[in-house]
Write a structure and sequence with these properties.
Helices cover 38% and strands 15% of the residues. By secondary structure, it is an alpha/beta fold.
Amino acid sequence: MSGFTWHGGRLAEARVHYGGEDWIDLSTGISPLVWPGVEGIAPDWCRLPEPSELAALERAAAAHFGVEPDHVCTLPGSEMGLRLVGRIFDMPGRWLVPSYRTHGEAFADGLPMETWNGAAERLALLLANPNNPDGRVLAPDRLKPWLAALEQAGGWLIIDEAYADAVPSSSLAREVGDNRRLILLRSFGKFFGLAGVRLGFLVGPRTIVSQARKMVGEWPVSAAAIAFGRAAYRDRQWIDGTIEALGMRAAALDAVLARHGLRAWGECPLFRLVDCEDGFALFEHLARQAILTRPFEENRRWLRLGLPGDEAALARLDKALASG
């Protein structure tokens, strides 16, 4: 890529390397539709959060997920949950690829797998649903037999649901319980457009939640994260409207990509993966026009694009693709 090394979302480095100021950052899967209630919240920065405030956040999050509050542990981002489960479970790990780098780092004894046959094995199976970067969505009816088979052998199913807010039907939250060997990891910032808040959750049996709470301590997140999360999860009208709006924006992005011969993959509306002759060349072509996307060293045909923030940004992408 002409000397530019991808480090993940390094917009500042791209500006230096390619020049230009008015950049459009499509390199992430973070929603461009930011929850608007932030401006009306003023966290108290002069004291530590009260336990009751953290409990209120977990009640709001649990109601949104569809579980009881004592099955929810607050974390400083869902990535922390991935690292915790690798320490909690003393068993081999398997993770479905393609996936996040952190999935491969979660288990000391683990292997990547391209497919899973639903075998009854004593291991921790980790997958993302919806998946990143390809946007694959596995229906709950497909995952339930996998969970049952793993439980039969004393294993665990761990699902990274960081993008599930945008595709609520994909969540396996209804299966969470003390008698189930199921862990879900949820993210706040991706759907609500507030990744910098660093807020996530581990959802699972109360014994595992108790262990996780001891590991993260009494003050796992900031007063701002608690205040934003508690209010945002209660904003049902905004949530429902945003799910609909994201679907419409993803369809508009699909149409632009198709117009330029690029087939979009995935069912997660927050990003699209394209498979083309040379993903790195397309990355460079767009970067020279101040549009940052996400290439992949492991597959040079791939390029992932997040949702443009508005019609003007989508029109710029359209124009840039047309000039190639």
